[in-house]
Amino acid sequence: MEKLFISYNQIHETVKGIAQEIQSDGFAFDHMVAIGTGGFIPAHMLKTFINRPILTVGMAYYDLNDVKMDVPVITQWLDDPENQITGRRILLVDEVDDTRSTIGYCLEKLLTHDPKEIAVAVLHDKDKPKTREIPPQITRYYRGLKMEDRWICYPWDAEDIWAQDKQAVWSDPPIENPITS
Ligand code: G4P
Ligand code: MG
Q1: Model confidence over 100-139: pLDDT tens digits?
Q2: What residue owns the CA closest to ligand 1's atom 30?
Q3: Contact of 144 with 124, CB cutoff 8 Å
Q4: Global pTM?
Q5: Which one, of 160, 156, 45, 144, lies nearest residue 97 by Cα?
Q6: Exposed / middle / buried, residue 157 (Cβ in 10 Å: 0-12, 13-18, 19+)
Q7: Most buried by CB count within 10 Å: which residue of 13, 43, 79, 88?
C-alpha cells in the first residue's frame, strides 16, 4: 500500500483545526481520554489549545504469544471511572480511525460508565468500511482530515525526522480537509 508521510507541523495544523471546531461547536469537555499509544501525542497537542486534563487507556490486539485476536484486550483502564467518567463530558482522542475496532470498543466500554456526553476526535479518518458503527449516543465526531485508505507514517514513528519532513510534502494532497475546505 502506498505510504503517506506526515510531519509534526502538519499534525499541529490539523490539531489546531480540530480545536477550533470543538470551540466553535461549544463542546466544553471535562477531560480527554487518549487511546495509547497513537492518541497520546495528539491529545497533548490538543491540550495546548484546550487545556483540560488527559486520562489514558491502552488496548492491544496481540496476546503474549504475538497472536492477533478478534477483539482488543484492555492493557490499561481508568482507575476510578465513577469519578472520571460518570456524569462527565469526555473527549476520546486517537490518531486514526482505521477499521474503528479500537475506537468502537473503547466507546462501548466508556458508555457503560454513564458519561454525560462523549465526543470523538481523530486526526485522520480513513474512507473505508468500518467494523463498528459509532454508537448513536455519540453525536459529535471531530475528524481533522478525511483520508484515502493509505498507510500513514506518523512523525513519532520516524527514526530520521528530517527525511520524514522531506517526504511529508503534499504538493498534491491526497486528502480533503473538512474544516478548512
Ligand atoms: P482504530 O479503532 O483506530 O480504527 O484502530 P484499528 O483497530 O483499526 O487499528 C489497529 C492499529 O493500527 C492501531 O494501533 C492503529 O493506530 C493502527 N493504524 C491503523 N492505520 C494506521 C496507519 O495508517 N498508520 C499507522 N501508523 N498506524 C495505523 P494500536 O494497535 O492501537 O497501537 P498504536 O500504534 O496506537 O500504539
Ligand atoms: Mg492507535
Answers
A1: 999 999 999 999 999 999 999 999 999 999 999 999 999 9
A2: 60
A3: yes
A4: 0.92
A5: 144
A6: exposed
A7: 43
> Is there a domain that residue 67 lies in?
yes
From the CB of 96, is ligand 1 less than 6 Å away?
yes
Question: Is position 114 annotated as part of the catalytic site?
Answer: no
Percent of the chain at pLDDT exceeding 90 = 80
Q: At residue 20, what are phi and psi to the nearest 5 degrees?
A: -65, -40
Give the residue, out of 2, 69, 98, 107, with the most ligand 1 atoms within 8 A of its beta carbon, to mutate for a pocket test: 98
Residue nearest to atom 25 of ligand 1 (CA): 152
Write out the residue range of the structural domain in which residue 60 sits.
7-145
- The verdict on the CB of residue 100 being under 6 Å from ligand 1 is yes
Residues in the chain: 181
Q: Is ligand 1 within 6 A of the CB of residue 98?
A: yes
Structure confidence by residue, pLDDT tens digits, 13-57 = 999 999 999 999 999 999 999 999 999 999 999 999 999 999 999
Residue with cell 479518518: 125
Q: Is the CB of 125 under 6 A from ligand 1?
A: no
Q: How many domains does the chain have?
A: 1
Measure 164 CA to ligand 2 centroid, in angstroms: 20
- Could you tell me the CATH number of the domain that includes residue 54? 3.40.50.2020
Choose, from 70, 98, 127, 157, the residue flagged as catalytic. 98
